[in-house]
Amino acid sequence: MLIHLKNIYKSYNFKRQKINVLNDVNMMVEKGDRVAIMGKSGSGKTTLLNIIGGLDFPDSGQYWFEEKLISFKSQSEISEFRRKKIGFIPQGFSLIDYKSTYFNIALPLKFRNYSKNDIERRVLSVAHELEINKLLDKSPRQLSVGECQRVAIARAIITSPILILADEPTSSLDKETEMVILKLFDKLQSEGTTIITVTHDFEVASKCRRVLTLVNGVVKNFSINS
Amino acid sequence: MFKLIWETLAQRPFRLLLAIILFSISLTIVNFAIFTKNAFASKQETLISDATYFVDIDFSEGFGELYENPNGEELLKQMYIKLKNNDTFRYYEFYKQFLYILNYSGPSVFKYGYEEGMEAEDVEFGNNGNNILASPIKSVQVSNNCFARFNLELHSGRHFNSNDFDYDDKKQIPVIMGYEYKDHFNIGQELECIYIAKKFQLVIIGFLEKDSYIKAGNSNPLYLDMYIVMPSINCNYKPLNYEEKLFQIRHYANKTGGFLEVGKDLSVSYVKLILDNISSECSLRKYDILGQNVIIFDLFAVSTKQMWNAIVILGSFLLLISSIILIIILIRTVSRNIPAYCGYLLSGAKLITIKICILSEIALIIVLSNIISFLLLFAVYGNVYTYNIFAVLISALNLIITSFITIKILNKSSLSSYMGRQQ
Ligand SMILES: Nc1ncnc2c1ncn2[C@@H]1O[C@H](COP(=O)(O)OP(=O)(O)OP(=O)(O)O)[C@@H](O)[C@H]1O
Ligand SMILES: [Mg+2]
């Protein structure tokens, strides 16, 4: 079992009011699986994804990753977990807009102390795959939304993580480019990568083996695609 | 890791630079104004240490205005008292004013200018119809503290006592002669002299040890063997006629043109500032510092403590505004950069590393502003005491406020909730 979430609760305080975002979420994902998370806007999809990716912490509940309990208390443990296991494609892309696209894609490798040649080779190959190899010298400010999305995807997959968390990765793409991404995910999955995607798009969801539906922070359905 | 993240705040360099410059300038103004204001109080707490130097000062105004001023001599007397009682320096009266000795019988070597080969001429003074021949003889006038400070020892006779410095228009004035005089004059011998156009009765009370000299600062030592040492007298009476008034003005101009002994921790410019303050308090325009490079701010001569108080308040206000501008620009830059920080986080940076990086950038910016201000002040004053704790406190406060807000913005859940939003 790659991921095991048990009794996860999460709430935010907003203007002195407590908003329950996740209510007793339970979820298991096997290695190599492909899962879609669906639900209305505000249902807690991003929050769940952030917790799985170690970017946020639950108020209560347990999270095992590869049978190991994740301790959200230890900053260094959690950041090592993120660095070693996770490729994250955030909904807002989170690109460093005052650096080049190349820098953005290469940064995870730089943090992992790859050599300059290795970095260049990898960045070029990933960029080629995502058809953004002409944009490497530009700054993210000069890119279209769809291009930014692909840069964020490139940054997430460049370290070949075992788990890819994608928050609506194709929301800003045209059908043609969406197909490129889905093919890429197919390929990654065939190589053993686990992929969890938040999506509103049934076509994207249909590519997944399982679909988890959130309604107001409660798991309504976690079924195998027919 | 740091190297990759560093520079997150330099994204809008123009604005940031402007904020830094504004902040530095207002720091400088506040420091400068506080320092200057405090200098007016002229109660410098720094004690004069063993490491001192001498500042030679000179009254450099024309006498004309003082002659016409009904209080002319009073102003100089006030100035003298203030010099003597100032806590920042020790004051030594020590100036050369030759004497015309009437019916001089000694050798020519003692005559003014003789050694330099430019012996001054004898002159005739009218004295009740009879003309008396008077010879210009070398003489120095000193205050009593010179004896101890310059280790002046006697060969014979007695030292001056404090009484000898008070003059009441009738008294004989005791004098101590240089060593070379001892073969030509005797203790107890009386002389008549003219000092600045006024006649005095002198009486010899002693002779200096051989090779006695006074050396103040970088000036050449003045050997006193051929000099008459006369007390720098205090005229504790109001001049009764115009002639006496002129005498007192010229005499007190001499008396206020002595030497200041100053602790090495105080710069000449600072001394100049204090001197200007004192003299403007006495409504005297100008005292010069001789032989030293001083940046002269004529501004001080006409300014008052109240004025500098106002500048302190204005400067503080400017500092407040520039602090707010700096904080706002820094915070806005941080907020604007949140997606970038998320990018670093997702790429594998630790949150704590990002925070440290941003905070150290903020600290660097504020420290840099202080250094700029410090250097500006140092360039102007050449003095490290100019820097005020108030400015440091304000800077520290800015640092704390900015850091606090930054940390709040970067809190983990607000960063992660950001990632759920569209860019
Ligand atoms: N930091 C926060 N403070 C307060 N409320 C928050 C915070 N982050 C999220 N929320 C709230 O939690 C709820 C769930 O947010 P989340 O981003 O998980 O929704 P979502 O399912 O991803 O929605 P969308 O489809 O629009 O992306 C929302 O109501 C949101 O307003
Ligand atoms: Mg979302």
Shape of chain A: globular
Distinct helical segment count of chain A: 7
- Percentage of helical residues of chain B? 40-55%
Q: Proportion of β residues of chain B?
A: 15-25%
Say which molecules are bound, naming each kind only once: adenosine-5'-triphosphate, magnesium ion
Overall mean pLDDT score of chain A? 93
The overall number of domains of chain B is: 2
Task: Describe the fold and architecture.
The complex is a heterodimer of chains A (226) and B (423). Chain A is an alpha/beta fold and 226 residues long. Chain A is 35% helix and 29% strand. Chain A contains seven helices and ten strands. Chain A has helices spanning 45-52, 75-85, 101-111, 116-129, 145-157, 175-190, 202-206, and strands at 3-14, 17-29, 34-39, 60-65, 68-69, 86-89, 163-167, 194-198, 210-215, 218-224. In chain A, the strands form two sheets. In chain A, strands 6-7-8-3-9-10 form a six-stranded mixed sheet, sandwiched between helices. In chain A, strands 2-1-4-5 form a four-stranded antiparallel sheet, with helices on one face. In chain A, strand 1 and strand 2 form a beta hairpin. In chain A, helix 3 (101-111) runs parallel beside helix 5. Chain A is globular, with a radius of gyration of 17 Å. In chain A, 45% of the residues are buried. Chain B is of the alpha+beta class and 423 residues long. Chain B has two domains: 2-45 and 300-414, no CATH class; 56-290, no CATH class. Helices cover 45% and strands 20% of the residues of chain B. Chain B contains 13 helices and 18 strands. In chain B, strands 3, 4, 5, 6, 7, 8, 10, 11, 12 and 15 form a ten-stranded mixed sheet that branches. A four-stranded antiparallel sheet of chain B has the order 2-17-1-18. In chain B, a hairpin with a 2-residue loop joins strand 5 and strand 6. Chain B is elongated and about 115 Å long. Mean pLDDT of chain B is 85; it is low at 42-50. The interface between A and B is medium-sized, with 34 and 28 residues. Magnesium ion is lined by residues 45-46, 91, 167 of chain A.
